[in-house]
Amino acid sequence: MDSSIEGKDSATRPGYMYLANHQPSMLLSDTLILDTLLNETDDTIYFKNTESKFFLNNRKHLAQFGVQNQEELIGKSDADLYPKAFADKCRADELRVMQTGIPLVDSVEQAINAKGEVITFSTSKYPLYDKNGEIVGTWGISHDITKLVQAQEAVAQVNAKLMALSLMDDLSGLYNRRHFDNILKITIDLYTRRRVGGLKANFCLVYLDVDHFKRINDTYGHVMGDAVIRYLGGQLLAYTRSSDYAFRYGGDEYALILQDTDLSSGKIIGERLRRLIEQNPLVIESTTIPLTISLGIVEFQDEKANSELICKADKKLYKAKSKGRNRLCG
After folding, report:
1. In Å, how far are 204, 231, 250, 321 from 224, measured between CA atoms?
2. Does this chain's domain 41-149 share its CATH topology with 169-329?
3. Is residue 77 within 8 Å of residue 87, measured between CB atoms?
4. Which residues contact 271 (CB under 8 A, 6 or more apart)?
5. Fold for domain 41-149?
6. How far apart are alpha carbons 89 and 78 in whole angstroms?
7. Exposure check for the chain: N or C terminus, fewer CB within 10 A?
8. Cα dihedral 80, 84, 86, 88 sign
9. Percent of the chain, pLDDT > 70?
């Protein structure tokens, strides 16, 4: 520093910090700097000895525990203030910092404040040195990121809902055609790998549609037609197993992927579904709409592409309809 700068001697006295603009009027004592950190920041700052017991805490940290006097925290550790699991983690972190001299930076921690609220902090912990360079404890600073985390969680929830909506058909409540294409490709790849690995792996694809759906629309109107789509979607959701997938393929057409199912078992499932729909007409107020469905089913036979399996299932469905409808062909 240039010796001609006024105030150099006083600025270099122990206990003072000389600020960047070199103005003597801006000299701050260490005591004033420490007092500012302890009382004016919204971050929590604390100092601990080698036993991880507090000996100095700033105003914000005291408020976190609902206390006003420093004496109320002196000599206490996290074990006196937090659940055991959290306190044990803090102690382990601080021991590591003291043993290695390496700070722990931006660790995310959660705690419960004096109001019983869960708060989230980004915490950094550093070794505390004495004037001889010996580590005599730790000091830490924590920034409250609760609102940020809550905002991130809210965004994640919205994104999850948007993702779900992008995969769902609004009218039927089933997965849509886009998701069908993705899941069928994933299923083909999965069962192909299983077979290459020597495992027995079977699944079935079922195509089905509502018999004479145009006649239903013409007779009862499109509002009732939409009700039929919703009704059948609900029946498929209720009927299929948790391991299966149900889709609205388009219009009054639906698709099912029956996992770990051979053709024989698939036909039993399909026939039960056909009878269920036949025996349970849609009833809305005083209107009863008899319903039947036609189904085509195929078993996976090492097809490499979606289109191969879809084409086979579609031909089986066409066969069922050409034979008089209200039947399953496979």
Report:
1. 31, 10, 17, 23
2. no
3. yes
4. 328
5. Beta-Lactamase (3.30.450)
6. 10
7. N
8. positive
9. 90
pTM, entire model: 0.57
* Digit-coded pLDDT (tens) for 247-306: 999 899 999 999 999 999 999 999 999 999 999 999 998 899 999 999 999 999 999 999
Which residues face 77 on adjacent strands?
A: 53
Amino acid letter, 274: R
Reported confidence tier of residue 14, pLDDT bands at 50, 70, 90: very low
Q: Is 13 exposed, middle or buried (0-12, 13-18, 19+ CB in 10 A)?
A: exposed
Reduced 3-state DSSP string for the chain:
CCCCCCCHHHHCCCCEECCCCCCHHHCEEHHHHHHHHHHCCCCEEEEEECCCEEEEECHHHHHHCCCCCHHHCCCCEHHHCCCHHHHHHHHHHHHHHHHHCCCEEEEEEEEECCCCCEEEEEEEEEEEECCCCCEEEEEEEEEECHHHHHHHHHHHHHHHHHHHHHHECCCCCCECHHHHHHHHHHHHHHHHHHHHCCCCCCCEEEEEEECCHHHHHHHHCHHHHHHHHHHHHHHHHHHCCCCCEEEEEECCEEEEEECCCCHHHHHHHHHHHHHHHHHCCEEECCEEECCCEEEEEEECCCCCCHHHHHHHHHHHHHHHHHCCCCCEEC
Structure tokens at 138: 């730790």
What length does the chain have?
Answer: 330
Q: Kindly list the domain boundaries of the chain, sorted by start residue.
A: 41-149, 169-329
Label residue 215 by pLDDT band (50, 70, 90).
Answer: very high
